[in-house]
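ESCALATION

Customer reports they have been waiting on this structure for their group meeting. Please prioritize. Original submission:
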Amino acid sequence: MKVRNICFSILVMPFLMIAQKGVPEDFLSDTFHKERRAALRDKMQKNTVSVFFANPVRNRANDVEYVYHQDPNFYYLTGYKEPHAVLVVFSDMQEKDGKSYNELLYVQERNARAEMWTGYRLGVKGAQDKLGFDMALNGKEFLNSEIDFMSFDKVMFDDFKDDYRDSDRNPADLHDLISSFKTQVGYYVIDSEANTEVDLQLDKNREGNLPNQRAKIDVKTLSKLMGGLRQIKTPEEMKLLTKAVRISAMGQIEVMKAMKTDMSETEIQGIHEYVYKKYGSEYEGYPSIVGAGANGCVLHYVENNKMEVGKDLVLMDLGAEYHGYTADVTRTIPANGKFNPEQKAIYDLVYDAQEAGIAEAVIGNTGRTTFNAAMKVINAGLLELGIIKSLDEQHMYLPHGICHHIGLDVHDLNDGSAFEPNMVVTIEPGIYIPEGSPCDEKWWGIAVRIEDDILITEKGPINLSEEAPRKSEEIEALMRQPSIFDQLELKKLD
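Update from on-call: job pushed to the front of the queue and completed.
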């Protein structure tokens, strides 16, 4: 037994000490994350503490997990991309064992055997050296942190969804970290409406008697504070977000050139996502939407299983994620390269509505302002086409808002305030006419959405995704160009 353990140690020690080489280096800097923590601290009231937990590991099936994706707030403040971690940010300096600090990062511990299976871990030293944390500790130390949460005027965190599993292999997994925290603060199920510590019931994850004390818990304010920070993009963030947007635009361009009537929705999706990977995008920012014909009327259609798109319009709502930042770009194109009269009429109407919405994406306005401008154009156009009978007719041809923030989330966190410089929002009007709609059948099955990513500036809106053509004539012209995928033929399989 001793020999086997020694052999194991000899084999894994080199792996344990060496991180992966040749990886991208254009991530956010440790200085960025440090400055964001300082910005949060400036917004916190005196004698308060904010607690953040890493995202859960998600199970796909049996012993296979989904590719891990960090909680955006956690990544924004730390740069740490691993699970089973806790960040504690104090409004004021704390003292312990002769050390002064105002933040603590608890990370998953280095483990040679685990790293052979799932990859290199930063550990405490990596968090100190690469992420710039003076006070980094192993996660198991949070289980008995000795933080006196009862002494703070407010303990802020996002309320729990309880969507994590307990692993027998890890004594300091997210389940254990959260359970310990609940005990440390005397957590009850919180009345989310009143935001008060109402004695509804003891949280089911805890055992034992009710605590004698409870911290002053606040599960509302932290999200607003983080929204206020994240809605304004720094220059360092804009480099990554702009690249994500441009990659997404390149995907739309290449698909326009490659589109054929005998393609499936899944094949079209694959071309987009291949382009993303070619440019270094790690993930899609959200499940890709490729809907031909009436499938485009399903707003979040992700099945993408129609075998041939034929002569339909193809609505393609996709976004590349680059180093955490997610674009959101939609184009709708005719699969055969030419809009028919009905398709063109609806498409050009949506284009005009988008132009009206973009024009209102200026400082001081809101998403509602852009919606109203776009809806005015759409209603007038639908009336002219005979699809509605009056301007005040209630209809569902545009059933969604047309503006949201983007960033670390495709629907990025914000505090709901009016537009300010360096916000990035989408403008995405659409018209969707499902089969059976109360209009002439010639319009049935037409679905159009055009979506672009807009930077709010002092000089007016800037369209970051303008490289992907939007005008119907420009789309048709691009679709006549040859494609790099034209010569791609794979062996047919039975």
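Sent to customer with the following note: The longest helix spans residues 235-258.
Escalation resolved.
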